[in-house]
């Protein structure tokens, strides 16, 4: 069984109940030439938590699923021990030498690991027996062919070698295709800093910005701090202004100002405005880019704006109506229109005809408790922030609020009463 084919397979209990999906394989690398042992699977539960399932629990591996001999698994988060490594996340794309006399074209040159073949031996242990490698590109730019070789012909696949710079990321990135940013963030957290930075460097600015927004604060500042300053500024520009402001607020003032200076002034201006507010107030919580239209906008156009894929569901739930300009801080705030109200109106009607002018608004200085009570009182997931002159400054969404109500380390700690996946128990 080749490791890359395991990624994404459903993990089932003995009665067919779903437990999660395979995301990687945990290997024990030896310090001698013995075959590495496959210790267990890195399994992602429906709660996004990744747990370790020993290979001894695996009974069958089929094209679409892995079946365990029990539905009871440990719910502890995956935590690699010394001497262990993730096959897909760390070992694939590494460089090795091949001492196989039957493949002379690989002699005295580096090859790239593209997959690992594992099999169960007589003692029922799973070990790496075969390695799929690809020769490096020739001087003419042609990609080398792929060869499957015995483990005993592979040289240089050690923990110390994995710490060397220059490791590729193609195989590691392939597992992130189609994954949500929060899931990619969870995967990156499991990797050592060197590997994390290599993968981050290969992601485009937009994708990396989405991933960073899902990381704990310490990991955010570490990634940004280890980047070249120009790249860090580009990534901050791609982040939502409120998330960029939160991150910059964790950096020393001199570093934050240097990054703001490198950002495009159009992108940095709303971030600076957010930084002028205390982080635990409505002004510090808000996004400066809510859904804003004028009273002369048609229902059809407002609905089209609400369908914008870049808007969160919470932000799309409420359309704010103002006098020009519509960029925050806007002209005079006139009221809002709920998404359900838009759906009930003829497309050609104007938004100004169905304004909700009675909904109370938040002030930028309102405390976290005031904002919480506001959401609970009006059963909202989004609320306007308006200054004393009646200008719309932004909007607070329920996800912004939850980020500040939960403990600062909520992304790193386990909840006390997580419901296990079907068939699993703690």
Automatic annotation (TrEMBL):
Keywords assigned: CBS domain
Keyword Transmembrane helix: no
Cited InterPro entries: CBS_dom, CBS_dom_sf, Mg_transptr_MgtE_intracell_dom, MgtE_N_sf, MgtE_transporter, PRC_barrel-like_sf, SH3_actinomycetes
Pfam families to which the protein is assigned, alphabetical: CBS, MgtE_N, SH3_actinomycetes
Domain CBS, first and last residues per copy: 355-413
Xref: SMART domains: MgtE_N
Domain of life: Bacteria
Signal peptide: none
Protein name: CBS domain-containing protein
The species this protein was found in: Williamsia phyllosphaerae
Keyword Signal found: no
PANTHER family in the cross-refs: MAGNESIUM TRANSPORTER MGTE (PTHR43773)
